[in-house]
Amino acid sequence: MESHLKKLVTHYRKSLQIKPDNLAIYDKIAELYYEQRELDKTLEVCQEALQIQPDLASVPKVLNKMLQTLGFEGEEVTAFQNLLQSKLDYESFQMLLSRSETVKTPADVKTWKDAIVLGYDFKEKKQWDEAIAAYMKAIEIEPSLSLSYLTLNCIINYCFTPEFNQLERIITFYHQLIQGCLTPPYAYVVLGDMLTKQGKISEAIIAYKFAINQTIHLNKKITKKYINSPKNDDVSFLIIGMGKAGTSSLYYYLCQHPQFLPATDKELHFFNKNFDLGLDWYLAHFPPLPAEGGFLTGEATPWYLGSYEVEKKVFQLFPQIKLIAILRNPVDRAISQYYMSLKFMKEHRSLEVAMTSEVEILKDIADPTQVIEKYWQTEKGYLWFGLYVYFLEKWMTVFPREQFLILRSEDLYNQTDKTMKQIYNFLEITDYSLSEYPKVNSGSYSKTNNELRKKLSDFFKPHNQKLEDFLGMKFNWE
């Protein structure tokens, strides 16, 4: 088998001598190494591909599998894909491939690589205080490594409660560290998030704006004309839904467009959780846009669609904003959300028990958007969030139909180029094709038994028909 692998790699390497910029060949070589679990060589090939064409679309698709093999999950995968052009981020992969057994505590740490390995191990064991200490050590040793800030922020968000007593210590550490140090923009996003948790909103706004300013000056899309032009604070569009329907992939594709300037984070949860923080806090997460046009910005919080009275809050601040909703077969969406909850230990029931319980509660409710409080004490909303028509009806009593683009997630994955052109046309920007369209933040799980799937399909059937009638478009979900 090893001999066969070497022959294939040699064959593809010879092809590269003829066509050295053929990214498809790099992808095939990376796949061969990955199948043999030679992850270090897989990584080397991915690095070679980026040197040929240094944009995220050129990274071999096997890299996403490799991220998951190394233990990255959910939003960590999405965020890490946005950091791949950094040499240090690649080196962190190398470190994860061979863990040191001698490093047991932060006191044993000598290098930033050892600190991240230790932090990762503590995170897996849910020893949060120890994980935080390890990632802070990694930041202290190598302040320019984005991965440490990203993971530290994920841990803080997971652990944060009013009783969380580490925040002041971490913020003090941050302030001491960033004085005169070369730190990535995301370091200031994390600082802004922590200051927000402390209620220090004006200080948080300064941190977010500093992050945006750093990002702008590092962004290859930016020209001197942009830097010197008059600008407005504005948000061009929102992806309002739906969760587990492809919003991470869609936002990732948009981030590659030369006219798109991303927010500090994909999901800001302003209109459903953070509205009281004020408009200035929200706008601080976005790059300012030239008054003469040419660029756009937006965010994707996929739970906006089903959240209470979000549509009124959006209209209050941005009455002309463009709105995108991507809808997935509600059976598939519900099952995907269930497995995400199971993965993060927010669900302990079996799939059949969870789905059957919710069917029984929702089947006799005349207006599913007005579920009783008891519902939220027992259910997770797996089916409820798939009742799209009732949410869209509410939004379209506030916004005119022409401000919406409604998409099927099945089309995004099966006809990606065509669907993206539809989106670009709606956003009034030029067409832009990627060489690859990787699925971002996707999960995998066993096939659902036919009896349960039919039960869920029967439940959704009348609601799906209402959706088609209301929008005048076919979804063809079974």
**Rg, alpha carbons:** 23 Å
Overall geometry comes to globular
Strand content: under 5%
Would you tell me the overall average pLDDT?
83
Helix content: 40-55%
Which CATH class of the largest domain?
Alpha Beta
* CATH fold name of the largest domain: Rossmann fold
Q: Give the count of structural domains.
A: 3
Q: Indicate the CATH architecture of the largest domain.
A: 3-Layer(aba) Sandwich
Q: Give the termini separation.
A: 43 Å
SSE series: HHHHHHHHHHHHHEEHHEEHEHHHHEHHH
Which structural class do the helices and strands define?
Answer: mainly alpha
Tally of helical segments: 23
Largest sheet: 4 strands, parallel
Q: CATH superfamily of the largest domain, please? A: P-loop containing nucleotide triphosphate hydrolases
Spatial ordering of strands, largest sheet: 4-2-5-6
The count of β-strands is: 6
- Contiguous low-pLDDT stretches (5 residues minimum) are 83-91
